[in-house]
Amino acid sequence: MEKKITVLPGDGIGPEVVASAVKVLQVIGKRFNHTFHLNYAAIGGAAIDQYNNPLPDETIAMCEASDAILLGAVGGPKWDNNAPSLRPEKGLLKIRKHFDLFANLRPVKAFPSLLASSPLKREVAENVDLMIVRELTGGLYFGEPRKKTDAGAIDTCVYSREEIERIVENAFELARLRRGKLCSVDKANVLDTSRLWREIVEEKKKQYPDVETEHNLVDSVAMKLITNPGQYDVIVTENLFGDILSDEASVITGSLGVLPSASIRGDNFGLYEPVHGSAPEIAGQGVANPAATILSVAMMLQYSFGLKEEAAEIERAVTAVFNDGYFTADLAQEHTRSLSTEEWTEQVLNEI
Amino acid sequence: MEKKITVLPGDGIGPEVVASAVKVLQVIGKRFNHTFHLNYAAIGGAAIDQYNNPLPDETIAMCEASDAILLGAVGGPKWDNNAPSLRPEKGLLKIRKHFDLFANLRPVKAFPSLLASSPLKREVAENVDLMIVRELTGGLYFGEPRKKTDAGAIDTCVYSREEIERIVENAFELARLRRGKLCSVDKANVLDTSRLWREIVEEKKKQYPDVETEHNLVDSVAMKLITNPGQYDVIVTENLFGDILSDEASVITGSLGVLPSASIRGDNFGLYEPVHGSAPEIAGQGVANPAATILSVAMMLQYSFGLKEEAAEIERAVTAVFNDGYFTADLAQEHTRSLSTEEWTEQVLNEI
Ligand SMILES: CC(C)[C@H](C(=O)O)[C@@H](O)C(=O)O
Ligand SMILES: CC(C)[C@H](C(=O)O)[C@@H](O)C(=O)O
Predict the structure, then answer these.
(1) Considering only CA atoms, which of A189, A223, A214 is closest in space to residue B75?
(2) For B84, which residue in chain A has the nearest alpha carbon?
(3) Which label site among A42, A165, A297, B296 has the fewest CB atoms less than 10 Å from its CB?
(4) Of B89, B94, B273, which is best to mutate to test ligand 2, by the most ligand atoms within 8 angstroms of its C-beta?
(5) Do residues B20 and B59 both lie within one domain?
(6) Where is this protein primarily located (chains A, B) (predicted)?
(7) pLDDT at site B337
C-alpha cells in the first residue's frame, strides 16, 4: 500500500512526539511492506509566526493532496493574548471545518500498568474500555449568529438533521464493532437541539436492533464517568458536551499522556492527534510522552487505511513496553527510572 | 426572629427528606428562639397531577409571600413522556426564572467518615472543600430563539453584561469569606459569551485585589476536578457549564447524598434544595438519606436569614452523627447497620 500523509508538528512538545510517531510509522511500513510518503507543513502558533495565519493555504493544499493528517499539538503562552483570529486553536477549528472532520473518536482504555497514576480507586478504573464519539463540526462551536459587544454576547447552537444523523450512524456502526452498547448523551430536558438529537437516535436505533441503546443527560454522565466508567462502551454526543466529557474521561485511567484521537469524515480521510496539549512547560527537553501520538498513528492505520493488523501491532508494542516497566517522566512511579522520549520510542521500535 | 417558609416537597423521596429537614428546622427554632411559619405547596410531578401545571399560580403566590423556599426534589418516570411544558423540571426552571434566583451555590466538602464511598483515592478526595457558583437564570437555558423542526434545531446562549456582573460579584464576595481563591470557568477559546465573561472577571478583579483569581477552560476544569479537586476554593461559571461541573463535583467525595444547594437572588431571598434527585426507585420506603436536605436548611439559615450560629450547629450535628458511624443505606459500609430516614434524623435531633 502507498499513502501520502501530511504531518503537522505544531507547537510545544508537538514536534517531539510527532518525530517519535513518524519513526514508528516508518518501521511499520518496512515490516508490512507499505510506503508512507510524508510531507510537513505548519499549523497553530508555528504557522502564525511564519505566515501570520494559524492555518495557511499552503497547509490546506498539502492536506488536500494527502490521504491523512498527523498532528502534534497547538498552542502556547506566546500566542495567548493574540486576537481570536490569530490564535493557534483557530487553526485546529478551521482544519476540522474545512475538511468536514465531523466524527471525533476518543478511546479511553485502562492500561493495567498505569492504574497507579489514576486518581480513581483501582477497582473503579480497571475495567474502563470506552469510546467517546464527539460531533466535531457543528453546535455552539460554529453556529451563527455569534457576537460580542460591551453590553452583551451571544452564541448559537445549531444542528441540522443531517449533521446529527451522520454522527449517530457512525456511533452505531462503531458500537456494533465493539461490545454493542451505545449511550447517547444530551440535555433533552432543556435544549431543543438535544430533543432533535434524541429523536434521531430513537429513529436510527431501529436499524441497529443488535445495539443496546440508552439516552442519558450530560450532567448525569459527568457523574457516572467517575462513579462507574466501566459501564460504558460507545458514548455519542454533540460538540461541546463531547469536549467536556472526553477531557473528563481522559483522566480516569491515569493515562492522559497515552490517549490518541481521530477526527474523520465519511470517506475515511482523517486527522490524527494526541488528546494531550502542547505542554509548553516541558517542550524541547526531550522528556515528553510520545505514546498518545504513536497510538494516534495506529488509529490512522486502522480508520483511514483499513490496516487493522498493523494498528494492532502498534498497540501490542506500546502495551508491552508499559508492561515491561518502561515509562516517560509523566508516568514513572517513584521506584522506576524514567526514560526520555527517544529512549522510550526505541523500546517501542524494538518491540515491533 | 420570625420567618415564613414555603415548603415544596415535590416528588419521589422529596416529601420524606423534606419532613426530616423540617423537624430539624423546628428544633433549631426552639433552641435558638426563632419562629418558622411553614406553608406547603405543590411543584413538579405532584403539581402536574393536581393542577396540570408543574408550577401552579397558587405555589408562586405562596412563595412570593414568604422569606425562603425549601424544596425536596422533582421528577419521576410517571411524567417522563409528557410534553416539555408538562414536565416536572419545567417547574424548577420556572421558579428559578420567576424569582430571579440567579446564583446557585453548591458547596462540596469531604466528610472524612464518608471517603470510603468515594470513587477517588482517599489522598485525592480528602482535602476537597470547594463551592461552585453557577449562574442559574441565563445562557442556553433561557436564550431565544430556540426552535425544533424536523429539519433542524437551534438554541441560543445569551448573556447581558449585568447578568454576568452580578454573578461574578457574588462569587468574589464568597471567595473573600472563604479562602480567597476564585477560578472562573469559561470556553473563551471558542465562545463569544465566554470572552465577555472573561473580560468582566478581569474588570471586577480590580475591586478584589485580596482574591487570587484565575481563568480556566471548562474542559480543563472537568479534568482537574478529578485529578486535583483540593486545589479549588470558589469556582464561578455560566449556567450549563455549572450544571455539568457541579454534578461532576458532587460525586468526588462519595457524598452525593449529603450535598445541599442554595439558589438565591440579590436580596437574599432563596430556594434551598438537595443536589440529589427524586430517586423514585427508593421513594416511600423510608430509607432515603435526608442529610442533603437538612444541610440545605442550614444554608437557608445562613444565606437567607443570616443565622450563622444556627447553620453551624446543624452542620456540626450532621458531622457528629457521621463520625459516630450512623449512616442511611446509601452510605452504609458493609459492616455497619444502616438506619432508616427517621432513625437517622433522630440522631441529628438528639445531637442538637
Ligand atoms: C483547542 C480547543 C478549541 C479544542 C476544542 O474545544 O475542541 C480542544 O479542547 C479539543 O478538544 O480538541
Ligand atoms: C432538572 C434540570 C433542568 C436541572 C438543570 O439542568 O438545571 C438540574 O439538572 C439541576 O442541576 O438542578
Answers:
(1) A189
(2) A189
(3) A165
(4) B89
(5) yes
(6) cytoplasm
(7) 80
Given B219, B251, B283, which residue is the final one in a domain?
Answer: B251
Instruction: Provide the grid cell at A186.
Output: 444530551
- Ligand 2 pocket, B155 CB below 6 A? no
Statement to judge: residues A146 and A247 lie in one domain: yes
Does one domain contain both A246 and A266? no
Domain-located, residue B117: no
Which one of the listed residues B49, B192, B247, B324 is annotated catalytic?
B247
DSSP code of B102?
A: -
**Of the listed B3, B23, B141, B159, which one is catalytic?**
B141
Q: What is the mean pLDDT of residues A68-94?
A: 94
Specify if A241 maps to a domain.
yes
Which pLDDT band, with edges at 50, 70 and 90, does B162 fall under?
Answer: very high
Q: Which residues of A touch B154 (CB under 8 A)?
A: 143, 156-159, 192-193
Query: Do the domain assignments include residue A309?
Result: yes
A91 shares a domain with A22 = yes
In 3D space, the residue among A198, A210, A235, A297 whose CA is nearest the CA of residue A103 turns out to be A235
Residue A281 structural domain: 1-110+253-352
CA of B80 to the centre of ligand 2 (A): 15
A159 Cβ contact partners less than 8 Å away, ≥ 6 residues apart: A135, A138, A139, A193, A196, A197, A238, B152, B153, B154
Residue A141 appears among annotated catalytic residues:
yes
**In percent, how much of chain A has pLDDT > 70?**
99
The answer to whether residues B199 and B186 touch, using CB atoms and an 8 Å cutoff, is no
Which pLDDT does position A337 carry in this prediction?
Answer: 80
pLDDT digits (tens, 9 = 90+) for B273-321: 999 999 999 999 999 999 999 999 999 999 999 999 999 999 999 999 9
Rg (CA), chain A: 20
**Amino acid A226: pLDDT:** 97
Average confidence (pLDDT) over A177-201: 97
Q: What is d(CA A263, CA B230) in angstroms, rounded to the nearest whole number?
A: 34
Q: Which of residues 287-316 of A touch B (CB under 8 A)?
A: none
A and B: number of Cβ contacts within 8 A: 164
- Give the mean pLDDT of B242-270: 94
Number of domains in chain B: 2
pTM over 0.90? The answer is: yes
Per DSSP, chain B holds a count of helices (H) and strands (E) of 12, 14
We report the CATH number of the domain holding residue B105 as 3.40.718.10
Cα within 13 Å of Cα(B91), Cβ side = 33
Residue B157 in contact with partner chain A when CB distance is under 8 A: yes
pLDDT tens digits, A259-308 = 999 999 989 999 999 999 999 999 999 999 999 999 999 999 999 999 99
Single out the residue in A228, A251, A274 at which a domain terminates. A251
Contact B191 A159 (CB under 8 A): no
CB of residue B132 inside a 6 A radius of ligand 2: no
Q: Is residue B202 one of the residues assigned to a domain?
A: yes
- Nearest-CA distance from B223 to chain A in Å? 5
